[in-house]
Amino acid sequence: MGDTPRFRYIHPNHSKLKKAALTRLTEKYIAGTASGEERLELESWYNEQLAQNKLQHEAQFDEAEHSLIGEKILNNINLQINTQEQTKPRLNFYRWAVAASIVAVLGFGGYWLSERFSDKNTNKVAALIKPGGNKAFLTLANGTKINLDEAVNGTVANQEGIKITKTADGQLVYTIVETKTGKQATGYNTISTPAGGQYQVTLPDGTKVWLNALSSLKYPTAFTGKYRTVTLTGEGYFEVAKNKNKPFKLTTAKQEISVLGTHFNVSAYADEPEIKTTLVEGGVAVKNFSPLATGVLKPGQQAIFHGSDFEINKVDVEEYIAWKNGFFMFNNEGIKEAMQKLARWYDVEIEYVGNFDGIYFGGSFSKHNNLQETLKILESTDKFKFKIEGRRIKIIK
What's the whole-number mean pLDDT along residues 374-386? Predict the structure, then answer.
């Protein structure tokens, strides 16, 4: 195997976790038996890793340990595959995200999977299907279309009173600048993401928006009217800048959401039967156009429109904003619904061979994995197999 990786972990109190202690904590965390202090210790490490990405190699794991930890993780995944006749257990997704991050960073996840699976399951000779990334197109008010993936960092466009900048970390930022006339352009811009793309944009009022794959946002270059109105297709996460004098309104094809300043997620894909609005903090009023229905959400609640049905439920918001934070999180989700999300991110087509009704899936995966790595984990449940043919994925029961 060549040089053995080594990892160094620095806890907030600057004490080092030895290899055995880290392994023990990881196992207890996955099983849900860790104490409050132990969870805090591991979660502090996780949050530090997310914020700074500064882990260095210093702890050594041999083949037996790879297999042991991998087997424990597999057992937890297996518990989340259920048929309609079985009880659907609820999954603590934040715990899964932390555990998955530990597996990925320490390096034993990919090694263990590669040892456990043979060519008979996932087609290893197929070219690796890489994950998506920051890809989007910006269409200006005059019709000019800019490929943001190819644009250099810095100013990408100037409109009267507005400067549009692409940052080094792949964000689009609108900045109001002074003009001789004191006027600002009032046209509309649209940012759209392809399959396998996502992007973040900061609007002229300071509102931050994250767009998921196959999504678009249409917005004015300056909010000059009574409302700050934008239009979404697909999925987006919004951190709305507060302005009591000018409410923020988000419209989709079938609904309108009104806010003053809040954080929320909206999933409104045209090929999905449901529109889901999930509130993280603040408050929003949701109005469905046809049939007419309204509701006010509190943090931790989700509004679902499905045909003529409208309901508000309490949910684990981490599940619905995981995509923004670099994870797929599924909680007793139909396998077809889960695979649809993977298809958008990896820009592939899915073909089903067999009847998959009544199969539900739960688990957490990094969006930074290549598709083959994720499919190997799914195959480990022995509920189905995958065959890769170019960018078409056959799922066989």
Answer: 83
